[in-house]
Design brief:
2 domains, elongated, mainly alpha
Length: 129
C-alpha cells in the first residue's frame, strides 16, 4: 500500500522536474527569439538614423554598433543552444552527486579518526565510574 504511493509520488516528482526543465528551456528560447527580433528592428533603426537622418553622416558608425550587437546575440545563441547541452541539468546533477560523495567520504574519514582517537570503550568506562 505504501510502496504504491511512494512510487507514484516519485513519478510525480520526476514529471514535475521534467516539466520545470521544459518550461525553463522554452523561456530561454523565447528570450533568444525576442532578442533576435529586437536585433533586426534595432539594426534597421540604426541604419535609418545614420543614413536617412544623416546623423554623423561622415562616418558609418552603425556598422560597428550592429557588429557589436551581433556579437552579443551570438553569445546568447551559444549560451542557449551549446552551453546548455554541455552544462545543463544532467551536468549539474552529476556535479552535485560528485560533491555529495566527496562530503560523505570526508565525514566517514572524520568519524573514523574520532573513533580511533576516542574509542567508545573508554567513554563507556568513564561513564560507569
Amino acid at each position: 500500500m505504501f510502496a504504491k504511493n511512494k512510487n507514484k509520488q516519485e513519478l510525480n516528482l520526476e514529471q514535475h522536474e521534467l516539466l520545470e526543465n521544459a518550461q525553463r528551456r522554452i523561456k530561454q528560447k523565447k528570450r533568444l527569439y525576442v532578442h533576435f527580433v529586437i536585433f533586426l528592428i534595432g539594426s534597421v533603426f540604426l541604419i535609418f538614423v545614420n543614413k536617412i537622418l544623416n546623423y554623423w553622416d561622415t562616418y558609418d558608425w552603425f556598422i560597428w554598433a550592429i557588429t557589436f550587437w551581433a556579437f552579443l546575440f551570438a553569445i546568447h545563441l551559444v549560451n542557449v543552444f551549446v552551453t546548455q547541452k554541455f552544462m545543463g541539468r544532467e551536468w549539474e546533477r552529476a556535479q552535485r552527486e560528485k560533491l555529495v560523495q566527496k562530503q560523505k567520504k570526508r565525514i566517514a574519514e572524520m568519524q573514523k579518526q574520532i573513533e580511533t582517537d576516542f574509542p567508545m570503550s573508554q567513554i563507556n568506562k568513564k561513564t560507569e565510574e
